[in-house]
Amino acid sequence: MGTKQQITEKITALLKDSKLSVTDTRMKILELFMKSNGALEHSDIETQAGQSFDRVTVYRTLQTFLDKGIIHKIPTTDTSVRYAVCKSECSEHDHHDHHVHFKCESCGTTTCLDETNIPEISLPKGYAMHNVEVVVSGVCKTCK
Amino acid sequence: MGTKQQITEKITALLKDSKLSVTDTRMKILELFMKSNGALEHSDIETQAGQSFDRVTVYRTLQTFLDKGIIHKIPTTDTSVRYAVCKSECSEHDHHDHHVHFKCESCGTTTCLDETNIPEISLPKGYAMHNVEVVVSGVCKTCK
DNA sequence: ATTATTTTTGCAACATAGTTGCATTTTTAT
DNA sequence: ATAAAAATGCAACTATGTTGCAAAAATAAT
């Protein structure tokens, strides 16, 4: 995991690589993502960060991270929007998260199963495929 | 597709099979689903039905249909919730929609590709799978 | 067919989620 | 150290979803 300072350095580097200003909000939110073993939604961030920053700032920060390919959204069947940090292969203009997302019905956590590949899906004639999202629900390793 | 009256009879039968009272709202909303070739979200229903019924009634009707296995939700990466009618194999207690959902980036329509099966996905050790959701995005047959 | 019971609907009020404009503050560049 | 650019916080607003309760409609019983 690394020391507090190592994480700080890593986050700073990530922001600079993405040509983003290094601000307290961005640092703290990225830190939350790094620490968390699952995906976060807006409300998680507000809760876990205390009352330290404005709702609007959180919305804008998440949007910025999305734009830069630092985080990605995970599809859900409710109104929540879940975000997770992207693997290094993702970039601003070449965004792909071809891994399986797993939602645990017991603890509610959503995680990215980075090792688990998505098998080929053959669409009917006439359909062009750009992206595939897979969300598996069940019981995770920890809850079992 | 059938005449107006045939559709009405079909919908009435569907409601009675699900042990639901036959009401104007439920008839009209189910008719919208039947007519639509794609998934609908709450706002679509309110728009397409005119101002004829209350927001709250629409929410409650959709929830009822979900409970009875008449419709199912489709995962999205935004805050919208999309619904589509279930195939006949679905029932109240045995709900499964093991087909691929396709979201067209051009026309925005989400459709169920009932013929397209979801391939096996092997999860890491320790994970138990209950359900799989697949959403493919790209360009649909019509828009191509 | 009429009435009684149950269910559904619509309204009001509320709660949560997300957006926009603008002034102030912070960050970065000079 | 200062100027320019970017990010933040606040206020106000829009959209989305929920709950309780009384009125209306649908089903069941007589």
Give a nutshell description of this structure.
Chain A has helices at residues 4-17, 24-35, 42-48, 55-67; strands spanning 40-41, 71-74, 82-85, 99-104, 110-117, 128-139.
What is the count of β-strands of chain A?
A: 6
Contiguous runs where pLDDT drops below 50 for at least 5 residues of chain A:
none
CATH class of chain A: Mainly Alpha
User: What is the chain-wise order of helices and strands of chain A?
Assistant: HHEHHEEEEE
Question: What is the gyration radius of chain A calculated from CA atoms?
Answer: 16 Å
Secondary-structure map:
Two copies of one chain form a homodimer.
Chain A (H helix, E strand, L loop, with lengths): L3 H14 L6 H12 L4 E2 H7 L6 H13 L3 E4 L7 E4 L13 E6 L5 E8 L10 E12 L5
Parallel strand pairs in A: 4-6
Antiparallel strand pairs in A: 1-3, 2-3, 4-5
Helix pairs in contact in A: 1-2
Chain A binds a DNA duplex (30 and 30 nucleotides) through helix 2 and helix 4.
Written overview of the protein:
2 copies of one chain form a homodimer. Chain A has 144 residues and is α+β, with helices and mostly antiparallel strands. Chain A has one domain: Arc Repressor Mutant, subunit A (Orthogonal Bundle), CATH 1.10.10.10. Chain A contains 4 helices and 6 strands; from the N terminus they run ααβααβββββ. In chain A, the strands form 2 sheets. In chain A, strands 1-3-2 form a 3-stranded antiparallel β-sheet. The A-B interface holds A 73-81, 100, 102, 105, 113, 115-116, 118-141, 144 and B 73-81, 100, 102, 105, 113, 115-116, 118-141, 144. The structure holds a DNA duplex (30 and 30 nucleotides).
